[in-house]
Specification:
The protein is mostly helical. The chain has one helix at 2-67. The radius of gyration is 32 Å and the shape is rod-shaped.
């Protein structure tokens, strides 16, 4: 009877260890996913700002070239 109890205790300890490792892995994966989502959101925001700035720069350059006096032909 004592042998059965020792085997059962060992099995329960092994199961608990596996379960703890699984929980830790799941928590890390969740934290990684949250970090990835934050990074992706920041990247999208910065990309939108860059595209907006590039469009404004193109518009400013186009407006600047239309306002310049044309060089006199010789």
């Amino acid at each position: 009877m004592a042998e059965h109890s020792k085997q059962r205790t060992n099995a329960e300890n092994a199961f608990l260890k596996t379960q703890t490792q699984s929980s830790a892995r799941d928590r890390l994966m969740s934290e990684t996913e949250i970090a990835n989502q934050a990074r992706d959101a920041k990247t999208a925001r910065l990309r939108a700002q860059r595209l907006e700035k590039e469009a404004l720069d193109r518009e400013a350059l186009a407006a600047d070239t239309t306002k310049r006096p044309k060089p006199a032909s010789s």
